[in-house]
């Protein structure tokens, strides 16, 4: 059997930090409201000329350095993003060039919004398990600040910018035990950016019915925890760490409760990062691994929920 496993991670956050006090000076809100309802204290915002690919490059370089491998041994690049630099080429192709990878490896983007990294990880895992590829760079990166309406207090306090990267490698031991992907396009009106290429629209910013998204996310993530454990014949007590998408502390707490996991076993970056969409899970993973909290051999449950709606999970032995 061939399995994939994570051999290295990397993360990048833009230099500029925006705290809640700055938002209070812009919109009708308060530090107390934001912290109590979302768990966010501050977030990072990209510089005006800083792009998704710029952030992806920094995160990928850190992962490559941590893996101590030559970038030209990568044989596939996947970037999960909803905010690509250009319509085309894909951010993954731009990234391949930036990293000096000249081995003609496959490179493409995946768009599943906040679940994008889980989708990308799942695709990469399948390529490795099939024997087709041995080393894959998976990046999640988003510059949400470009699609935020800074007058909409229901969204601008939540979303932020950042990138994370992992390198997956083929091996004889898992690694990734299973991934689970879902979507339901019935709920597009609850969370969207109603503008694009074939349907331009006049409001190219996020629109969200936060309260309804919240309820759907809590229920759905509870279900995917059950699905993931059942697929692997595991019980809640087998999970060492929950590595959730950092959307809202109350959604994360509800999922931890479902798993009977104490919050010390939940990787939390939301207070400092906000919701960085595709970057959220790999950034959280990288922060817990570099801090030495997640240790080799431990079992991690990764889960995410996003616009679409999309949702997914991955069960991993680190
Ligand atoms: N500051 C102060 N008040 C705010 C506010 C803000 N930034 N944003 C909304 N409010 C107000 C609302 O206008 C509303 O006021 P009203 O009662 O006078 O109408 C009140 O707070 C409650 O609004 P509601 O939307 O019910 O709040 P909530 O407790 O659901 O929290 C979210 C709002 C957005 C924080 C929460 O719904 C959420 O996080 N949802 C999930 C979002 C998410 O995870 N999206 C990404 C998925 S990847």
Task: Give your account of this protein's structure.
By secondary structure, the chain is α/β, with parallel strands linked by helices. The chain folds into 2 domains: 3-171, Thiolase/Chalcone synthase (Peroxisomal Thiolase, Chain A, domain 1, 3-Layer(aba) Sandwich); 176-317, 3-Layer(aba) Sandwich (Peroxisomal Thiolase, Chain A, domain 1). It is built from 9 helices and 13 strands. The protein has helices at 20-24, 31-38, 52-67, 91-98, 116-129, 210-231, 249-258, 270-273, 280-290; strands at 3-12, 16-19, 42-45, 76-80, 106-110, 135-143, 161-171, 176-183, 191-192, 207-208, 241-244, 299-306, 310-317. The strands form 4 sheets. It has a 5-stranded mixed beta sheet, sandwiched between helices. It has a 4-stranded mixed beta sheet with strand order 8-13-12-11, with helices on both faces. The protein is globular. The model has no long low-confidence stretch (mean pLDDT 98). Residues 29, 33-34, 37-38, 114, 153-154, 157, 208, 210-211, 213-214, 217, 247-248, 251, 275, 305-306 line the site of coenzyme A (COA).
């Amino acid at each position: 059997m061939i399995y994939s496993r994570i051999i290295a991670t990397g993360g990048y956050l833009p230099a500029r930090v925006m705290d809640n006090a700055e938002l209070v000076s812009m919109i009708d809100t308060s530090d107390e409201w934001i912290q109590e309802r979302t768990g966010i204290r501050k977030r990072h915002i990209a510089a005006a000329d800083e792009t998704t690919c710029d952030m992806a490059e920094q995160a990928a370089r850190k992962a490559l350095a941590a893996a101590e491998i030559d970038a030209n041994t990568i044989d596939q690049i996947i970037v999960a993003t909803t905010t690509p630099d250009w319509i085309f080429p894909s951010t993954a192709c731009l990234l391949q060039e930036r990293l000096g990878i000249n081995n003609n490896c496959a490179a493409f983007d995946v768009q599943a919004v906040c679940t994008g990294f889980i989708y990308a990880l799942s695709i990469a895992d399948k390529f490795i398990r099939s024997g087709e590829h041995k080393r894959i760079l998976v990046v999640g990166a988003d510059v949400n600040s470009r699609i935020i309406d800074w007058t909409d207090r229901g969204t601008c306090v939540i979303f932020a910018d950042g990138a994370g990267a992992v390198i997956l490698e083929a091996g004889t031991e898992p690694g990734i035990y299973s991934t689970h992907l879902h979507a339901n396009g019935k709920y597009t009106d609850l969370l969207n950016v109603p503008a694009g290429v074939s349907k331009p629209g006049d409001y190219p910013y996020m629109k969200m019915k936060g309260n309804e998204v919240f309820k759907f996310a809590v229920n759905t993530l509870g279900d995917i925890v059950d699905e993931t454990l059942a697929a692997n014949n595991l019980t809640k007590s087998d999970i060492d760490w929950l590595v959730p998408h950092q959307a809202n502390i109350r959604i994360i707490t509800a999922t931890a409760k479902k798993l009977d996991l104490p919050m010390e076993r939940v990787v939390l970056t939301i207070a400092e990062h906000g919701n960085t969409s595709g970057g959220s899970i790999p950034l959280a993973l990288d922060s817990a691994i570099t801090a030495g909290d997640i240790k080799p051999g431990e079992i991690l449950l990764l889960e995410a929920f996003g616009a679409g709606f999309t949702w997914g999970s991955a069960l991993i032995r680190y």
